[in-house]
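WARN  no MSA supplied for this record, continuing single-sequence
INFO  ligand: xylulose-1,5-bisphosphate
INFO  echoing inputs
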Amino acid sequence: MAALQALIFDVDGTLADTERDGHRLAFNQAFAEAGLDWQWSIPLYGELLAVTGGKERIQFFIDRYQPSFSPPADGKAFIAGLHAAKTRIYTELLATGGIPLRPGVRRFLQEAYTQGLRLAIATTTTPANVTALLQSVLPDGLTWFEVIGAGDIVPAKKPAPDIYLYVLEQMGLQARDCLAFEDSANGLISAQQAGLTTIVTVNDYTQEQDFGGAALVLDHLGDPHLPFRRLAGDPGQTTYLDVSLARQIHQQFA
Ligand code: XBP
Ligand code: MG
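INFO  complex generated
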């Protein structure tokens, strides 16, 4: 039976709740700067999150909600320009320290790193966004994560397994050596298709989604003074995720 060697983390919604008050606001500000009257409300953004990737999300929005909109230049270049502005706005917002890590994330990562587990990131978001988040709330993460698989480095975004397969290849590991951490159904499908046992921590946008096949579904990772709520799976008597429970879950599903 393979021993647990590495943990691979999604970013948005998993390390931090970045979507509603981060990405969404940055998209809206980029639209305003471009003179567009598009406004993504909290519920509309929940619907748009079904499409992963910011450029892909803007394209989907135009197709569905602005079908008569004709971009001033070539459509792809127009979206790329809007998205570059969004990335600038989002990374500036993170630099103000506006978005904290989710409960238990720092504690668990610190423990895992100290115990010699290898750490990596597999995300749909733009690489600059990951760096900006780590710089602002987890500077140690810039050295802890040995591989950061992000954004357009693979052509097919989640729910395709490509980003997880890329990270596994970079680390020289098999899926059975690792655990993945996700917050969304698209992320879970991506990790599962790559063969990874997956722990899910839900958030407001994802709590109603289908997490069938996840090893464990929690409201967050928990902390000694902030127990998690178990939504599916068997964490035994433990009330917060530590390396010992992570190893146990990995063995259960190995
Ligand atoms: C995150 C995403 C990203 C962000 C926006 O999904 O879907 O598109 O919302 O980032 P996951 P960009 O958590 O599954 O990685 O605008 O940089 O694409
Ligand atoms: Mg996510």
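The chain has a mean pLDDT of 96.
INFO  checksum written, moving to next record
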